[in-house]
Predict the structure.
Amino acid sequence: MTHPSSGGLADIIAARLIAALAPTQLEVINDSHHHSGHLGDDGTGESHWTVAIESGAFVGQSRVQRQRLVNNALADLLAGRIHALAIRARAPGE
């Protein structure tokens, strides 16, 4: 399991998802540099993220249900520190 962005908010995101969904694979990617100066850029360099996650918790779940599970794990961060989150969620073997 990897999360290439390390430190700061990336580690918090990874820890939350590990605790909530026990992923078999996890990548937390900071996309903020692509959005510098755009709406939602708060100047921290930690506002826009992509999460690629594989978890047994997603078996039998629709794409929307999987996204809700991820969003629930990160709810307070989405309310303040995360402006944008792209989610690629899959079950093992997909």
In short: The two ends are 17 Å apart (CA to CA). Strands lie at 25-30, 48-54, 84-90. The chain has a mean pLDDT of 86.
